[in-house]
Design goal:
It is built from 10 helices and no strands. With 341 residues, it is an all-alpha fold. It has 2 domains: 182 residues, no CATH class; 158 residues, no CATH class. Helix 8 runs antiparallel to helix 9. The model has no long low-confidence stretch (mean pLDDT 91).
């Protein structure tokens, strides 16, 4: 096996994991949007691989669900067939998480044994493994918050769960780009890295705030744009709450923050794009900037439609897919700029 072939195999593996993590984010979002996340009330890593296989098993799982507040307060009229629907969403979400863990762990151990992993990526690849295992625990930590007193999971834990998923996605995709693009380019100038790193960071923070919006069902209120019921600031809140912890616990303010951070991201991107297109030294970044523009425009458009529809499931899911595209194109910009001497 030549050195080049080794890198190709590793890059294919990382590309597969990148795709699976993206699929996991999408499936997790749909699990949340269909209110299915609390349907499985136990965390069983081994035996939880198998779904209920008989009517008795289904009734046992349904009985466990009947013991939590969500069923008692919101779904007391739910039938067994209706329970099966939400169960399969959560089951497939957990099953995909197990597959990702296995598909990452086994090849990683093989590549380690064969000593084909580059020294400059060894620590990063094992950090990803730790984060994948941690993500499984945080997922259960999130579910636990909705099993005893509340009818829903903690939006803080939901935000941690989603943000960590995107961090894993970023790290895997970054390592894929490193294995798939080894060439260093020589140019007269280089865009300040802090500028595009800050842009990527803002997009990630926006995704985190988006999790708050989802966790508080904040997308189902103020179904108007650009104003929030004829006001710039929501009329059911006080401006002083914007600068306190209440800002992250009040659905209308969370939606307000989500909207305005989007406006800031647009302005920041416009500033970056203007620098790149006005300077001939940055011509190598222009195609990527165009991809970011398309992703950002699509994401804003889907975000507006999601608000106007009251977070209709298909639109809300497409909005989350848009965030994956935006993170991907933004990371490619950061990567390309990092390959310049």
């Amino acid at each position: 096996m030549t050195e080049e072939n080794k890198d190709i195999y590793i890059s294919y593996w990382l590309l597969l994991i990148t795709f699976l993590v993206a699929l996991m984010i999408i499936l997790g979002g749909l699990t949340r949007l269909t209110d299915s996340g609390l349907s499985i009330t136990r965390w069983d890593i081994i035996f939880g691989i198998l779904p209920p296989l008989s009517l008795g098993d289904w009734e046992k799982s349904f009985t466990l669900y009947k013991q939590i507040p969500e069923y008692k307060l919101l779904n007391s009229s739910m039938t067994l067939d209706e329970f099966k629907t939400i169960y399969w969403w959560e089951y497939n979400h957990r099953l995909l998480g197990r597959f990702i863990g296995l598909f990452y762990l086994i090849p990683l151990l093989y590549f380690t044994f064969k000593k084909v992993i580059k020294k400059n990526t060894f620590i990063s690849l094992y950090l990803i493994l730790i984060l994948i295992f941690l993500q499984g625990y945080i997922g259960w930590y999130m579910v636990k918050s909705g099993l005893t007193e509340k009818t829903d999971v903690s939006h803080y834990r939901l935000a941690i769960h989603l943000t960590l998923a995107f961090i894993i996605f970023i790290l895997v995709l970054w390592n894929y780009l490193k294995y798939n693009n080894r060439q260093i380019f020589i140019h007269n100038n280089k865009l300040p890295s802090y500028l595009i790193n800050f842009f990527l960071f803002c997009v990630l923070i926006q995704i985190c705030i988006g999790a708050f919006v989802s966790g508080l069902d904040a997308g189902q209120i103020y179904q108007s744009w650009p104003l929030m019921n004829h006001n710039y600031f929501p009329d059911d809140s006080s401006m002083k709450d914007l600068f306190s912890i209440k800002a992250f616990e009040t659905p209308s303010i969370v939606q307000f923050i989500h909207r305005n951070l989007a406006y800031f991201i647009i302005l920041l991107f416009g500033f970056i794009a203007a620098i790149i297109y006005r300077n001939k030294d940055f011509v190598y970044l222009r195609k990527t900037v165009l991809l970011i523009f398309i992703s950002l425009f699509l994401q804003i458009f889907l975000g507006i439609l999601t608000v106007l529809s009251g977070a209709q499931i298909i639109l809300a899911s497409m909005h989350q897919i848009g965030s994956i595209l935006l993170i991907t194109t933004s990371l490619i910009l950061v990567f390309k700029n990092s390959r310049i001497n």
